[in-house]
Amino acid sequence: MKYHFLISGIFLIMIAASGIAFGSRIHLVSDLRLPGLTAAIYPITHSGNPSPTKILPIKFDAQDFNLSCEVATLKMALTHYGLTVDELTLSENMGIDWRMQYRNREGVTHWADPDQVFVGNPDGKQFQDGYGVHWDPILRVARLYRPASLIQNGKIADIARRIDAGQPVIIWGYYGPGDERSWTTWDGERVDAIKFEHTYLAIGYSGPAEAPTGIYMLNPKTGKEYMDSDKFIKMWDYYERHGVVVE
Q1: What are the structural domain ranges in the chain?
Q2: CA-to-CA distance for 197 and 99, rounded, in angstroms?
């Protein structure tokens, strides 16, 4: 199955206390643009804030690294249940493939598989030495601490229903415009990607639960945001409406 994915950034930090070195490497593939691939993505604008029908009292906690939005949203979701788990611990449990992308003699770019582990450097630069991670590894890590379930091809009413049950939802989307890129995993699977992959934590909604007019989210870069339903669905569509519910 092919997905359209957006690109995040990379890890360039030394964590001496934990014994983990998040270091960048020098060899880069400077241009992964593929002929004929362009993305019809436009800047995301956030609407005004109507009164929420329901909103969960989850405190914003910014992501610690340039590309750690996925573990940052999980970190915030866990606090809803009184659990404090730092991003380094979550990242260790998730797994990181630090190997750099490279292009072979045939011009095929190879890199890690975001359906298995975090790809590249979590504190790096967009699509140079880091990308991000998809829902299956985050679901696996979430289940170390709480029950969790996967949303696939979801509806916005599914999110409202979960919020009504007191359950935050990690949403895969994007943050800003981008163009399409692609690579092949070490095992030969193709990944289609779009710049500025990003996750949000859905914590509230406006309007009726069966047809919400908008979603309140915690953006791990900037804080609380509201997005009307049309813009939210457009953003969510790029990841085939995947999400992880922390229960």
Answers
A1: 4-13+40-246
A2: 19
